[in-house]
Design goal:
The chain has about 270 residues and is mostly beta strands. It contains one helix and 17 strands.
């Protein structure tokens, strides 16, 4: 892949080898297997977001101690951040013993910024300092992933068992389509230009991180963090989800997803300027 070197670094725990984004390969890596979903014990920095009724709302990513990335459409305009919390778990299963961490603020790009479906959440960093080991991974704010680029999604989709689980969609790629989704009447999200993928997701996956990856000798390596899950292009003409396009695996129903790239967010660029 021929990406520009990003200006910013994201501090995260990543299990495995990290690759910078400087001219890894001029040709997209082809994924030989069909997309599928697996349980993911790693990537503990990807967390589920709940409301004060203890309902799963979205997925999010700890990008720094005290800061999360997720999707803007996970919230209504007048939502109180005190009504939300996330759960940190060292394994793939969320249970009653895992740490509940309250959200203190929700931020979006301003009126003069480029439109997108990205939100930044804040919390007291004391909750994760000493629990989450941080390393550097590139945040791509300069370019868009190319058609055929290998991707990885990690999120908390609603499952048929109703258990809250960290699930990865692997062997998926960036697809050709670029477009928009109709906004919800009372939501600030589903905004901006969205990129299509064949990654597998369901309700609850929104806000989950999309990583650009590379396969070498059968091993997956993370190149960069590209954006957050927004919705799906599997829609009817009226904008509703086309349920005839839903499929099932061992976890339950799924659709293919699109995502909002960080390149569209001035807020994300400002956060990682230094």
């Amino acid at each position: 892949m021929d990406h520009l070197a990003p200006k910013c670094l994201l501090a995260l725990l990543v299990v495995g080898t990290l690759i910078g984004m400087t001219e890894v390969d001029a040709q997209p890596k082809k994924v030989n297997s069909a997309p599928k979903r697996i349980l993911m014990d790693d990537f503990s920095f990807v967390v589920p977001l709940f409301n004060d009724d203890d309902n799963l709302v979205c997925s999010a990513t700890i990008i720094r101690h005290g800061m999360l990335l997720t999707a803007k459409h996970c919230f209504y305009e007048n939502d109180d951040p005190d009504d939300f919390y996330f759960v940190y778990s060292t394994d793939a299963m969320i249970d009653d013993d895992d740490l509940r961490i309250p959200i203190t603020a929700i931020r979006y790009d301003g009126p003069g910024d480029e439109v997108n479906d990205i939100a930044v959440l804040y919390y007291q960093k004391k909750y994760t300092e000493g629990r989450v080991k941080l390393q550097d991974i590139s945040v791509n704010v300069d370019t868009l992933a190319k058609e055929g680029d290998s991707l990885l999604l990690v999120s908390y989709p609603i499952t048929k068992s109703r258990k809250v689980m960290r699930i990865a969609s692997i062997n998926c790629i960036r697809q050709r389509k670029i477009g928009t989704n109709p906004p919800l009447a009372k939501s600030p999200g589903y905004d901006g230009t969205l990129l299509d993928t064949n990654c597998l997701a369901f309700w609850g996956s929104s806000g989950g991180p999309i990583f650009q990856t590379q396969y070498e000798n059968g091993q997956m390596k993370i190149n960069s963090l590209e954006g957050v899950v927004t919705h799906s292009f599997d829609l009817k003409k009226d904008g509703s989800v086309d349920r005839d396009k839903m499929k099932k695996d061992s976890f339950g129903k799924y659709l293919t997803l699109n995502y909002s790239p960080f390149k569209q967010s001035n807020l994300i660029k400002r956060i990682f300027e230094h």
